[in-house]
Amino acid sequence: MRTITLNPKQQREVEILTRLEAGALDGGTAATLLGVSTRQVRRRRVRFRQEGFAAVIHGNCGRPPANRTDPALRERILALAGPDGKYHDLNVCHLQELLTDEEHIVIGRSTLDRLLRQAGLRQPAKSAPSVHRRCRLRRAAEGMLLQMDGSPFAWLEARGPRADLLGAIDDASGKVLFLLLRPSEDQIGYLLLLRSVAQRYGLPMSIYHDRHTILRSPKQPSLEEQLAGQAPMSQIQRVMAELGIESIAAYSPQAKGRIERLWGTLQDRLTKELRLAGITTLDAANAFLPGFLDRYNARFAKAPADPQSAWVPLPADLDLAYYFATRETRKVRADQCIRFANQCLQLLPGPQQPSLAHQTVAVHVVPEGDLYVYYGKRRLSYQPLAASPSPPPPPPAEPAWSKLPPDPQAKAKQRAWLFGHR
Fold it and tell me: Each residue of 229-256: pLDDT tens digit?
């Protein structure tokens, strides 16, 4: 004798069909109670007469599903994503992509997530407590607003040194425009970022950044600057101002949340891909970044609301060394020389170049370290001079007591002391 277990829904259906058979209900009422047509009621009634309580159980109950994952494929995926697998710490979306591209395993994201959870290999992420913030819509067109920042992290894990990843992302499309690993967050990295973005895309209308002293000077204006209506600027701040880029300093990380979320994604994805590629140095990692950037943008970038770009293209004759460089001023000596970084630079005469003695010139240093000298916006030619031999060291100073004036009574005191102690 077979035992049949019914759930509450099936028990209710048996009760309705039993009353229908006893004549307590008509077909229309039974159809309303079961939520089916009268034709389905007649079919279920005939089956109920033939099979009894088993008639309300679906025919597929207890059978393996036709679309279930192949057990061998399931074991292979769990081996790759398990504690000893090479994809052991990838998130589900990233794992699905690499399984498709590298292992030629095509599986749905929800199915993969279910398999990993059932095997205890992944846990749901803990969400931070919600904070009420105002929503800021994306800018309409590319180039209207960039967000740039640096993220210190162990990008090479234990295989290499810690580094800062400098990057820029377009607010309208979420397209990552630049990535570069540097030993630290510095001026050179930001100069390379601005120059690379300007050469490839053009000048943006504005840039959103944090209040790092590299990007925003913390100094108070001097009296002369106050009288001239000027404010102290960092080197990067000055470059943006001269190029007509609006500089917006954020008061919190959430204000520039798009690039902050990018760092969270890259700290998860990029570190794993650098590990899978066997990269151990910053130079190799920077060579890996362009290909990663193309794949990332193809996967995550969105089309802007306005297809008309807001980028301002650079003029063909723009002197990049004038703008994308640090700048310091020097005064020209009477012999047409200036000193910079422990070097003596001899300014060379030009066909239309008068004497610049006692004039102020600017020394520009590009990210590669090359020096350029400008008078206004006119580039000057110069020749480094050999360092002059250092002067001989001064003689050692005499002790202070040797310079005291002689005491005229010293000998008399000494003689009295000597004869008095015989």
Answer: 788 899 999 999 999 999 999 888 888 8
How far from 365 is each of 319, 325, 342, 362, CA to CA, in Å? 13, 5, 14, 10
Q: 194 with 113, same domain?
A: no
Q: Which residue has the higher pLDDT, 413 or 335?
A: 335
Please list, in sequence order, all residues whose beta carbon lies within 8 angstroms of the beta carbon of residue 89, skipping any fewer than 6 positions away. Answer: 272
**Does residue 179 share a domain with residue 96?**
no
Write the single-letter amino acid at 276. Answer: L
Strand order in the sheet with 206-209: 176-182, 163-170, 146-153, 206-209, 246-249
Q: Which two tokens stand for residue 202?
A: 């053009």
**Which residues, including other chains, have CB under 8 Å from residue 404's CB and lie 6 or more apart?**
none
Beta strands in 353-414 (DSSP E): 360-365, 371-375, 378-380, 382-385
Q: What tokens were used for 249?
A: 């300093």
Instruction: State the pTM of this model.
Output: 0.70
For residue 402, pLDDT over 60 is answered with no
Tell whether 181 and 257 lie within a shared domain.
Answer: yes
Both 159 and 276 in a single domain? Answer: yes
Question: Would you tell me how many other CB atoms lie within 10 Å of the CB of residue 332?
Answer: 20
In this structure, are 169 and 242 located in the same domain? yes
Query: How many domains is the chain built from?
Result: 4
| C-alpha to C-alpha distance for 158 and 280, rounded to whole angstroms | 9
Burial class of residue 214 in the structure, from the number of CB atoms within 10 Å of its CB (0-12 exposed, 13-18 middle, 19+ buried): middle
Do residues 270 and 177 both lie within one domain? yes
Same domain, 342 and 367: yes
Range of the domain at 257: 146-219+231-300
What contacts 367, CB < 8 A, 6 or more positions away? 188, 191, 192, 195, 324, 325
What's the CA gap between 237 and 309, in Å, rounded?
A: 24
Pairing of strands 206-209, 246-249: parallel
